[in-house]
Amino acid sequence: MSMEEQCARGFPGQVFSGRGEGSFYVSIYAKMFRKALGFTPYPGTLNIRLAPKYVDVFNDCLRLVPKIIVNPPPVEGAKLARVVVYPLYVNGLPAYGVKPEITVYKGDVVEVISDKYLRETLRLRDGDTVYVSLAIGGLE
């Protein structure tokens, strides 16, 4: 199996509640995301902790995915950083992973944005297993 095939197959992870800061940051970056992605994301992120045995492979696969750099909006007095955005699917639903240059999470966490409230759309709760597959050629 090629690296591309392995990356597109999907990586299991568990949904978990973050620190509650996702909605704040997504709201601050909303205009920048709209400009870069063509939509305004739901104000919040879906947090997925990858199964430990897939973390290294997932992060290796990220090198193959097209990325968009989103610069921080000008907010006086705030220390904001760039965000790397990349296309993916969560349980087959198109979305985007976000990797802020400043984050409390390690490489085992995928933060996801979408124009939909993913918890509701996919009927997810903390502890549910989802599959994250990377969109090597971009989203269809």
Task: Please specify the SSE layout and strand pairing.
Layout (H helix, E strand, L loop, with lengths): L2 H7 L1 E6 L5 H16 L8 E5 L4 H7 L6 E3 L12 E8 L2 E8 L8 E5 L4 H4 L7 E6 L6
Antiparallel strand pairs: 1-2, 1-7, 2-6, 3-4, 4-5, 4-7, 5-6
Describe the structure.
The model has no long low-confidence stretch (mean pLDDT 90). This protein has four helices and seven strands. It has one domain (3-131): Elongation Factor Tu (Ef-tu), domain 3, CATH 2.40.30. The chain has 140 residues and is α+β, with helices and mostly antiparallel strands. The longest helix is centred in the N-terminal third of the chain and has 16 residues, at 22-37. Helix content is 24%, strand content 29%.
Q: What are the salient characteristics of this protein?
A:
140 residues, alpha+beta, Elongation Factor Tu (Ef-tu), domain 3
CATH architecture: Beta Barrel
- Poorly predicted ranges (pLDDT <50, ≥5 residues)? none
Q: Please count the beta strands (DSSP E, at least 2 residues each).
A: 7
Number of helices: 4
What class do helices, strands and sheet pairing give?
alpha+beta
Count of the separate structural domains: 1
Mean pLDDT: 90
Short description:
The protein has four helices and seven strands.
